[in-house]
């Protein structure tokens, strides 16, 4: 079997059979980065000078929903300071949500949305754990139709209507949490994060305001796209604008793998820089109701089933069948049972739309990050590469990474 580096070199080798544009792989423990390797180039456009420049840990990427972890931490910092409460009605801070409504359908003749009053109020905990029905418009056909009717964007925090509530619906709750932070601190979300996360950790290449940081723009990788036929090439869109008008807590950050690793390391270190140790435990504590847990597991199992049925990956990745005993905390997805490859119960994980993925395994004392810029999301080839990477971490292929003994 190929090593992970042979696997990635073959997958990113330029030519008609190239599988992945490029990726940055990082492993860390509480003391720092223990493994870092980059593969591929910054662009698949042969006319771009970036096509000859390799990806590096300092390459700028739109990290999309990897933003959510920082927004969750910022929210918990506000909870520690008494500025926010996880379980109070958010309408005292977000009056837009004093009387939440649920989208139940559309009128046959006019196409006008049919709304009804929600029975329950919204809380910050519900926003952080996706239990509000505030799904992403681009992922929910009925919400996309509503957004088109109301002339509002399908992402961000402009929409003030929920879909008919299932118990767990991935969406824009973190964007609204970011709005809560702004209103109780009288600062932009970016300013609050800079003061309380980025500067304390030395994260100097992370921003919501890309146009104000030419140094960060100068290191940005191009976005790539996989076609329906499976080939890869330059993407006609970056998907997310460079000049977003708001600091979107659900997915608006630009950063680089080296910066994001600093965040993961600090969480493993748990020395009070970001949160009190007890609050860090709260960040990892499963929060879903039984219905929410069932809904999440159904959602995630469907995604993994699709991947398992694909032809992507190697025999090593096929062995990494995850346990579907998953829950969700205010910080991210939580594994409630260990995975066969070695990932321990209690590990937190999530990712970002252009096929970025991260894991924090506090029991083993390891965190790892896979960074890329490839559309569309949920790419099976990228998922296979990530799982091959994870296999290498837990099975000792990468040498002594400072993992705690089981």
From TrEMBL:
Keywords: Hydrolase. It holds the Pfam family Beta-lactamase. GO terms for molecular function: hydrolase activity. Residues 4-388 form the Beta-lactamase-related domain. InterPro entries: Beta-lactam-related (IPR001466), Beta-lactam/transpept-like (IPR012338), Diverse_Enzym_Activities (IPR050789). Belongs to the class-A beta-lactamase family. This is Beta-lactamase-related domain-containing protein.
